[in-house]
Write a structure and sequence with these properties.
mainly alpha, 8 helices, 0% strand, flat
Length: 182
């Protein structure tokens, strides 16, 4: 069963991006949208948005730097280690699970370190990569994108984003256990 699952995952991964591109371009042609012009206009808007979000980005990166430097990340990881052992998640990946909702660059640094120490083809390396791709930088998204459009009350966005991150991490552990053992 694991081999069939692995074959399906490989087929989907090879076809996903080209298929999405073809679908979007085809849909634009069917709807008589000038796809290139709309793309360029979106790119201009993206540049303007990136200029507006710089203050929020600087504040978020500063807060994350303080959090990591204070040792709070290590304390959280040691508190949750017994729970992760129950679900089969190596304790080495716990720092990545905590950092990913906070910072893309911080979590990329942790993932890179895991790759250097354990190797990219190790179970920890594969799991770290899958966890990184299965979750989002929730606090970053809320701070930067909500801030750029002056949304002050995130209401249900934070709990929903963190729940999605949690299930992304759990799914990464489950799928990596099925496909790669470990």
């Amino acid at each position: 069963m694991a081999e069939l699952f692995k074959g399906i995952i490989n087929a989907v991964s090879v076809l996903a991006i080209p298929l999405f591109i073809i679908i979007f371009l085809g849909w634009g042609i069917i709807k008589k949208v000038k796809v290139y012009e709309v793309f360029v206009e979106g790119a201009k808007d993206g540049f303007n948005t990136s200029v507006r979000i710089i203050p929020y980005l600087v504040a978020m990166l500063f807060a994350i730097g303080i959090f990591r430097a204070s040792g709070a990340m290590d304390v959280l990881a040691s508190l949750f280690a017994p729970l992760t052992n129950l679900i089969g998640m190596p304790s080495e990946t716990l720092a990545l699970a905590f950092m990913r909702p906070l910072s893309g660059s911080g979590s990329l640094g942790i993932m890179t370190e895991l790759m250097k120490v354990h190797g990219p083809d190790s179970f920890i390396g594969v799991l770290a990569s899958t966890m990184y791709g299965s979750s989002e930088t929730t606090f970053y998204v809320l701070a930067v994108y909500f801030g750029s459009v002056q949304i002050k009350n995130t209401r249900h966005a934070l709990p929903a984003g963190l729940i999605a991150d949690l299930f992304g991490m759990l799914a990464a552990v489950l799928i990596c256990r099925i496909l790669f053992g470990g």
